[in-house]
Design brief:
It is built from 5 helices and no strands. By secondary structure, the protein is mainly alpha-helical.
């Protein structure tokens, strides 16, 4: 999967009439293609929290990430990027 760029499935890109948005979504997917699984999650979580940014549902279409992945990325970002399954939780 590394190096493979996801094709955005959102309505805007499908219509093909908004070059700015299409380019933005393509760049998101180019960047995602270079990240590992954990980083992809965090980037998705970060995008989902941007003011005026896409909803989770739109983000799924744009990035191909699933809702669970986006939610988890958001949660981990809030927790200071604590990855539950890689490091034991410490306080
Ligand atoms: Zn798109």
């Amino acid at each position: 999967m590394a190096g493979e760029v996801h094709q955005c499935q959102c309505a805007v890109c499908a219509a093909g009439e908004d070059g700015v948005t299409q380019a933005a979504h393509r760049q998101i997917n180019v960047l995602l293609s270079q990240l590992n699984e954990v980083q992809r999650r965090w980037y998705g979580g970060s995008l989902s929290q941007q003011a005026g940014g896409p909803s989770d549902r739109e983000l799924m279409r744009i990035t191909g990430l699933d809702a669970k992945t986006i939610r988890r990325g958001r949660r981990e970002l809030r927790n200071g990027l604590a990855v539950a399954d890689q490091k034991p939780k410490k306080r």
